[in-house]
Amino acid sequence: MAVKVGDKAPDFTLTSQTGEQVSLKDFQGKKSVVLYFYPKDDTPGCTAESCAFRDRYETFKEAGAEVIGVSGDSTGSHQQFASKYNLPFILLSDKNNQLRQLYGVPATMFILPGRVTYVIDKQGIVRHIFDSMMDFKGHVDISLKVIKEIQGAAA
Q1: In which order are the strands placed within the sheet that holds 90-93?
Q2: Is residue 51 annotated as part of the catalytic site, yes or no?
Q3: Strand 13-16 versus strand 90-93 pairing type
Q4: Among residues 33, 46, 82, 120, which one is catalytic?
Q5: CA–CA separation, 36 vs 119, rounded Å?
Q6: pTM recorded for the entire structure
Q7: Which residue of 23, 28, 68, 91 lies most exposed, with the fewest beta carbons within 10 A?
Q8: Residue 86's Cα: distance from chain center in Å?
C-alpha cells in the first residue's frame, strides 16, 4: 500500500554514506524532512536532481528541513557519489529496496526504480508527494515551496 498525503510517514533506519544509522524519528519534533527516492548514483538524471538539491540545500536548512536521498546503491557508492558532487546531505542505502516498497514508490516501465519525493513535516505527516521521472528540478522547487508553506503555517 502506497503512502499518501496526510499519512504518518513510516519510520525507518538505514545506513548513510558515512556509515551512520539514520532514522526518520531522529528528526521528529525538530525538522521537516524532504525524502527523495532516486534510481541510481552517478547517472545523468539522478546527478542533475541531487546537484539541484545540493544547490538549494542551505535554503532547505534555513527553512527548517533536512534533505535525505535514498537509492538501492551501496554506502560505498553513495560515498563516491557524495564526494564527487559535494553533496552535503544524507544519502541512505536501501539495498533490498525495502524502504522503497514500504513507501510504495512505483517502478517506471516496471523495471527502473521510480523517482519520488516525500515532504514530511516535523510531526512525521506526509504533506506532499512529487512523482516525476523527468522533472528533476521540479522535485527541488516544489519541495522547497511546500517546506516554506509548512513553516509559514507553523509561524
Answers
A1: 21-23, 13-16, 90-93, 65-71, 32-37, 116-120, 126-131
A2: no
A3: antiparallel
A4: 46
A5: 9
A6: 0.93
A7: 23
A8: 17
